[in-house]
Amino acid sequence: xxxxxxxxxxxxxxxxxxxxxxxxxxxxxxxxxxxxxxxxxxxxxxxxxxxxxxxxxxxxxxxxxxxxxxxxxxxxxxxxxxxxxxxxxxxxxxxxxxxxxxxxxxxxxxxxxxxxxxxxxxxxxxxxxxxxxxxxxxxxxxxxxxxxxxxxxxxxxxxxxxxxxxxxxxxxxxxxxxxxxxxxxxxxxxxxxxxxxxxxxxxxxxxxxxxxxxxxxxxxxxxxxxxxxxxxxxxxxxxxxxxxxxxxxxxxxxxxxxxxxxxxxxxxxxxxxxxxxxxxxxxxxxxxxxxxxxxxxxxxxxxxxxxxxxxxxxxxxxxxxxxxxxxxxxxxxxxxxxxxxxxxxxxxxxxxxxxxxxxxxxxxxxxxxxxxxxxxxxxxxxxxxxxxxxxxxxxxxxxxxxxxxxxxxxxxxxxxxxxxxxxxxxxxxx
Amino acid sequence: xxxxxxxxxxxxxxxxxxxxxxxxxxxxxxxxxxxxxxxxxxxxxxxxxxxxxxxxxxxxxxxxxxxxxxxxxxxxxxxxxxxxxxxxxxxxxxxxxxxxxxxxxxxxxxxxxxxxxxxxxxxxxxxxxxxxxxxxxxxxxxxxxxxxxxxxxxxxxxxxxxxxxxxxxxxxxxxxxxxxxxxxxxxxxxxxxxxxxxxxxxxxxxxxxxxxxxxxxxxxxxxxxxxxxxxxxxxxxxxxxxxxxxxxxxxxxxxxxxxxxxxxxxxxxxxxxxxxxxxxxxxxxxxxxxxxxxxxxxxxxxxxxxxxxxxxxxxxxxxxxxxxxxxxxxxxxxxxxxxxxxxxxxxxxxxxxxxxxxxxxxxxxxxxxxxxxxxxxxxxxxxxxxxxxxxxxxxxxxxxxxxxxxxxxxxxxxxxxxxxxxxxxxxxxx
Lengths: 430, 430
Prior knowledge:
Shape of chain A: elongated
CATH superfamily of the largest domain in chain A: MoaB/Mog-like domain
Strand order of the largest sheet of chain A: 2-1-3-8-7-6
Radius of gyration of chain A: 28 Å
Largest interface: A-B, 88 and 82 residues
Largest sheet of chain A: 6 strands, mixed
Distance between the termini of chain A: 60 Å
Oligomer: homodimer
CATH architecture of the largest domain in chain A: 3-Layer(aba) Sandwich
């Protein structure tokens, strides 16, 4: 057996080749959500997608991709092309590739008939083509549709091919409830891959790398893998090892990253900054309100995207005009005149005004020039003042966020949410 | 020259092999949005993605995919791996593959330095590695980040390789403003496609198709191509021809679609509903304000995403609590008690209240149950009341939008924006 395959067995890692079949995915009509979903589910079982491709639903494209992928991966998963219509040819092409006969499966046929009778709908005879399965295949009955899933072991190559239906509400439960247990039984698998992801805010990707990488050198030499993923205004630090005995290394690395850039880490795993902030406020029994000019409601929107936000978010004002800043927030018209709407003074009065008006513990504000026009030499496009008013006083700061309008809003709300986060952290620890 | 390539030239169609590079895409940490975005943009120019793959950011994976893809496609596009960190190796690997030297490009270096100075941030020296470009490559300066895009023609195979940075806000404008015009110039088959896209709202995909297709049959027989693309709450109708001399057919088709489903068409091309609404208000010298409960600021956010919104949007209130509905909008506390916050009466009072308070011509409101919890038998999750108050009265309506929280906000704001749009259309024509 060649080297790489041996290694895979030793570290108990299944590498997956994923083939998404369908013109509607390829031409962009439908977003391919299968890839991310299957990748994330697989991670839970120590399996990784090593290669993913989207192909046309033609026999030629399916055969070409099967040939190259089955030779390279122990596990190949396909999605799509199992339905009853003329462009659903995956089952036929695969049977031909494996030199297997198709025969009607009575259990599948019953499940299809029951699917229609449960819904009290007439069954077109054509749908019974989905009961044709390759002889000897493992069949996964579809509880949320009609096309069954199928698993085949290639007679020569030591690889498994798993075929899944395209609709997500059919694929998801089938994969979780039937495919995973089946594969755990037939493939030498395990949890060989340990991975923890720390999410940071407020520090650039190169800067994060510069700060932590040198101090993790000893762990890297013992098999620690580090990856970075820059999102807008955030950097994810991925700490992993392929050796299950080395999970202590990952824990050590996580602890060290916390030591080095602690305050920048806002969460571990799939948690947005707004969720981290809302959950922190819930834990501390604190409430918040918002007064937005240049972010135009996006700050309130992010907070209210989090289920449970109604427990902490009291209300918000979107005050685009000076008149509304005065009316809703009690900003001084003299100060608006003297300093302008985009100023430290007005940001402070907005945050304190909305805190006072709603009776919340914290008040957030943004006032700036989102662009593309409206800038001056003294106050360029991108200049934004933000404030967080809290029980211990008000913090005001400014940034120059030179982005397109929507990114400007995202980055600005990142900064003010992060300021709130740090203020609450300090209030608790102080 | 073999048959298929000849055919491609005749029908002026470019087939693309797309390679998305990045472990964070492959392992599902980040959703691959590049594929759909590039596919949709390409459609406008008559180009199609024929194969897409996501690969690890290793030299081996990049080389393997380049070899097979460049041999098959006239145009290969890669995304990702152009940044400054150790896992950004696309540039190096491609230079090796093409046998080209990397040299610092002074224009790129200047653009990187300016990027940091504009933001008044210190520049880590390590980022200058992004100024290293293969000698002879076409360079696309990155106006929204630091890594430039690159285009190379393979010296032996007659194929172009275009490398794009990973972050969408960098990739999108670079592709539209620089890459498309460049490719239309250098690829003989890259131009000549005529395509117009009409955007509709409020009508389902099959209904749009049913209404227009029969009445376009004569144009279809003369080479008109029709495509549909269902987005959330919207359907795009794509009218195209591959014969540049046939652009009159497309114009005729557009005129006919306007005749058949006129009021449903809100724009042509890449125009969002909020942009169409804001531009319509600007044209009519009318102003608007918003009072949001369940959409939590997303309605104000959508309106203020449009440059120039400050001319028409006066202000908004995000009133999550009953107390704020009373305080900010003057909703009657008796009616809140009698009918509940999610009711026709309260929706009406919110819209009229915000219109009165801000002095705007139109006032919009939303009040509903976004979920996932909070529903009852009488008022289920997804129930939402909306109102538009205008100079000629107030329109109130309700829908049941059973979606996840963010889709709920999107669909609900679609419905209330469309109601405003039709009210303004009728006010002008009436």
